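The records we work with from here on pair a chain with its fold. The integers have meaning only within a learned vocabulary of local backbone shapes. A complete example follows; check for yourself that the lines match position by position.

:::
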Amino acid sequence: MSPIHLITVLALWLSLATAQTTAQCGPNEVYTTCGSCEASCQNPNPMCTQECRPAGCYCPLNGFVRNASGSCVPSSTCRLETTSRRPRRCPLIKCIPGRRCIQPICTPSSDGPVPTCQPNEVYTTCGTCESTCANLDPPCTKNCRPAGCYCPLGEFVRNANGSCVPASTCRITVRPITRPTPIP
């Protein structure tokens, strides 16, 4: 097959594949191979981490949110909820009596005790991927991991023993350059 025919076949296949994935998306949705958490009418500012969600159709980030029926709509069309029903973010605000700050939201104190974390760890309800001594820059999206104790991003990394330590304390293993021994 000639290069021109091969390029034509590849271009046709690519256009069909693209058309197929975009045709499956609903109005105001975009197809992405590395999804992120979406805003919704109920939660217009979700706390997200940087881990990929499965490929699929998502609301675009430019002012669209998912409504209660599952459609992507302009955020301006969401029915306004009373501020008492919307979680308040902390520490930007002080939690009212009877509520406590479980990052990032003020939650009722009756939810049970906040787990005690190890040194240099923080408890968060929206976990994130963590840097480690072995991988200082892991690929992340804005998905939440389960609530728990995590190393604060940008401050500490998890070492091989499972402790959160300053990145500067990680031992970088460098293999020495070996030169072949000359044969006499």
Remarks:
- Residues 47 and 126 are 7 Å apart (CA to CA).
- The domain at 99-169 is CATH 2.10.25.10 (Laminin).
- Residues 8-22, 80-85 have pLDDT under 50 and may be disordered.
- The beta strands are 30-32, 56-58, 64-66, 72-74, 99-102, 105-108, 122-124, 148-150, 156-158, 164-166.
